[in-house]
Amino acid sequence: MNELNTKITVARGDGIGPEIMDATLRILDAAGARLDIEYIDIGERVYLAGNTSGIATEAWDSLRRTKVFLKAPITTPQGGGFKSLNVTVRKTLGLYANVRPCVSYHPFVDTKHPIMDMVIVRENEEDLYAGIEHRQTRQVYQCLKLITRPGCEKIVRYAFEYARQHNRKKVTCFTKDNIMKMTDGLFHKVFDEIAAEYPQIENEHWIVDIGAAKLADTPEKFDVVVMPNLYGDILSDVAAQITGSVGLAGSANIGEHVAMFEAIHGSAPDIAGRNIANPSGLLHGAIMMLVHIGQPRVAETVHNAWLRTIEDGIHTPDIYKEGISSRSVGTGEFAAAVIERLGRSPEKLRSAEYPDSGESISTVYTPSTDGRSIRKETIGVDIFLEWSGGTPDDLGHILQAVNSCGLKLQMITNRGVKVFPGGMPETFCTDHWRCRFLATNVGTRVSTAQIVDLLSRVDAVGLDFIKLETLCTFDGEPGYSLGQGQ
Ligand code: NAD
Question: Terminus of the chain with fewer CB atoms < 10 Å: N or C?
């Protein structure tokens, strides 16, 4: 082992993974990247060998030793089967910031958006990707959306620090806080709080639906865009695709201890093994890795040779276009063309330049508030039932009869819509009912013993409760949403 080399862990992945990883590593090697590589096996083969996590203990050991991971895409079963290993790795290693630059290379790559240079900063650990799902009743399934204050503070601060360090002018936030007022509402609130600390950087917020439409229509108006996990996952594919191909963009997953670099696209099983995949996305991930590990000159050399290759019209089939491209090449030939151009720079496209200092964004989290000083009081409970015994009024009357422990039924909702008291006959009801009980003397504290007593009374009348959520106030503010129509 050479002392000057940086140890990294590499996984060749599934589908097109091995092809694009081989191409990428050939380019890095030819460019003089100083790397000592530990290979690990993760993904489909590991699942099929009986390890349901998709990653073996030795692979974790390698990641924790090297702290730098270059990962090719892996296949995740859809609909059922094993949990996503990508999500497992990101969350287990605390890789909270997923940075996805999406740039168009007009006129050398065909795109409807000639001016586009945006960076999507996607929250990487929370939201619906907590992956906590339950079948609650015969008819109803649930996925928990978790948004935390530390998670929001970490990602939003990262986005502003990224903008400051990269001399970006604006940070935009997308949420759906008109509907999800508490979860997305928190993300937006934290965005506003942290934005105020960066007066030199413009900030704006869009509700994600219109924001997404604008991003797809006028991407040139965006600079850095920060968003919760699911929106970021979807919209970074959109952004990459409209630059010309999803195969062009790379991504960095940054945490306090470890960082992982990859392409934003998946394992593309439809084109695997055919030597036609574009290795550019993974190569861009590798360029970000070189900057991260303090080899910015090598990153520059690789990036500029890549830009020159694109400029020379040497294109893989996903971006090949008659009249723009000069030659259609396979994955291996593309890598060879980049290697041939090492040491050269693009003539028209802007050359890549990376500062000697590399990345210097602090990833250590310092909480902005001390959560322990917040006063929390339980004032009621939502009991969820599976029931198909009649109308909402029937259920309401049964539950009104069990109000004898200092808690009183306030309302019943079905899929969030108030159906009792005073529901409408047009409302479609499933077998999943949320029954809200508050203290008889509304606003006063409710004890655990009262809730347990209520549950046993609900059970005693033969109702099937599936979960409960306590209703709390935090410094006097309700920590729960109203029913729709309440
Ligand atoms: P995908 O990104 O693999 O493919 C979508 C489309 O883009 C396909 O038509 C594919 O041929 C094309 N494409 C993707 N990368 C390309 C490249 N480098 N060059 C040329 N064309 C390319 O998305 P998918 O089909 O939805 O997912 C396939 C598998 O990948 C699934 O199992 C999914 O879970 C997994 N996936 C993994 C990651 C990851 O490892 N980070 C990310 C996304 C999806």
Answer: N
